[in-house]
Amino acid sequence: MATMVQRLRASVITTPTGSLINMVGIAVVVVAVVAAAQRIHQQGATYFFQTMGFGLAEGAIFALVALGYTMVYGIIELINFAHGDVFTLGAFFSLALMPTLGLTEGKISGAALILPLLGLFIVTMLFCALVNVVIERVAYRPLRRAPRLAPLITAIGMSALLEGVMNVWRGPFNLHYPDFLPEYQIPLGGDVTISAKAVTVIVVAVVLMVALTLFVNRSKLGKAMRATAQDRDAAQLMGIDINRTISATFFIGAALAGAGGIIYGLYYNSVQAFDGFQYGLYAFTAAVFGGIGNIPGAALGGMLIGIIFAISDGYFSVAWTQVLIFAILIFVLVFRPTGLLGMRVPEK
Amino acid sequence: MTRAQEFVRSNVRNPNAITYFLLAISALFFPAVVQFATGGSGDYLVGLAADGGVYMLMAIGLNVVVGFAGLLDLGYAAFFAIGSYTYALVASNHLGVTPIGHSLHVPFWLALFIGMFVAAGAGALLGAPTLRLRGDYLAIVTLGFGEIVPRVFRNGGVWTGGVPGISALDVPKLPGWFVGPWVGLDFGWVPDFRFTSANLTAYYVLMVVLITFVVILVNNLHGSRLGRAWMAVREDETAAAASGVNTVTIKLLAFSIGAATSGFAGAFYGAKLSYVSGENFGFIVSVTVLAMVVLGGMGNIPGAMLGAIVLYFILFWLLPNAPQQIEGLASSLGLGWLNQSTPDGWPGIAEVVSRSKYVIFGLILVGIMLLRPQGLLPSQIRKQELKHGEHEAIAAPRQLQA
Q: What is the pLDDT, as a whole number, of residue B80?
């Protein structure tokens, strides 16, 4: 946490302010923040906390997906476009699995839910992880020494393929996803409340992210991942099995995306075969915003993008939210390609 | 030996020359053959081919960006949208209902180039700050741009007609045109001709002319100093910069020329459809064009054209017609039960086939990159590279250096 704050401070301080174009950029950000603050002030606290509940829940899901993008980018410098679709696949697969585990809406509730839901998470995460490992094995590994453009194109292809398979499987419809999360509002004093649904989503996501951070920082495989990300050749010379480490990265990233898919389904109660493309782009924006290749950065970026999303939806116009998110993506890449927490990455 | 003989002999083993020749021949005879085969009611199919020409133009343009200069542009449809909307604004009554209050009716022949220049300008504006980014970041920036532009047009309110878009665009006009049995008339010449959906063959002819024009232009660029600079940047940007190539300008030019071609195609598309809407320019268009270029062979103009023909044929003729054929096939094989949808989720085989568009995209992009990264019709330079440095080329298809 301390290093995170340090880096954030450093990143704010080291942003060059000299050139005109950077001044314009800063001015735009300031105007946006002031406009938002004014509207938030007008609408009052109840609405604000409600919006923040949406934003944080959405941000938690963004963060889970963003982690997969950032881990894969950190280790092999590839934008895994298929990642967003692995996320949707998690929702689709878990939806199909539910009857087997006895998860039928209206027939099961309360504490009886916990065990089947846990099973659902584990099986879905494993499934998505295996799919992603196969994708890496088939579409990215043979091209690891090829020029950069080649794996990017296969990544787009894999994304289209997954979307196509899901589309053939369930059609291009909005599918209903069962609603198992608590519906009541938790009072926070006064007439300020936060929905229990959002809290559940945030808690599950945070638990998964903490587990990931501990794994990457403490385990031997996590150490191997960090080493491979830093210098693949040197890591190999130290006896690290590169292929296994890269597979593990895809495995873990997709497991988180699969969990994200379930949470997404449970939170919105609706999934569609092409959701993952858009959602993956938002999550990728989050990863870039936080600093691509940086795990706490992805979590922070996800939360921030979620909050920006909710504020734009809640206080400004829903129609322009997506434009805003993609504008942020371009803005960050142009003015600060390292993101909020990222370090300068040399071009390899 | 006469010059003609010499020409034939020197090109007989050149796949590009053969492809150009075959393309020209088939473009010339396509309408006649279609009319003959359908008994004179093939105007619709000829019009479909004209729409395919729009994709071919875009493939030629994207080939400049991806194939020649090695920049991955995933938002190519944005420039297509800009070209279309520019045409819609300058060649319809729409500006009259905006706060400007005065509609422009620029003739098609001029508006085509306005659309092209506006798209090129947009390309330069986007490219100037972003082209110094590394290759994969550029891909993402263009992807974001491609998502923004249609939404801006959709949200543009009175300026862009909002969600319904702009309709009743002006059609191209000519002082005269020839008609014949293909539109149900006797052979003859009509003065003051207006291009309409009653004579799609006219659009086809116009499209062939436009493609020829663009191919000649792009082919000359490829052979010029600029074309060599693109290749140098694609192969090794650092080495190119060290040899005195201004890499940013070179990349910017590739980006703008690609955008210009897309805008050109967009203006034609708007005029032919006489209607534009933000729904027609999604990511799917960008991916389709990219798949065309990859399929045909990155960096080779006839390759991109061939890829466009093959993929357009699959997507817009084969796929819409396949469900019926498959149903018929299943019935005749005694598998008629496949045609019925069942309550456990099987939607019927026809529906499955018509849903499989994205699977085809995916298989083409992944399959080609893994099995034949040079595409169906690779460029000659790359072929020579393969001959000279086989060991190197196997490890890394240098053609694709980003």
A: 96
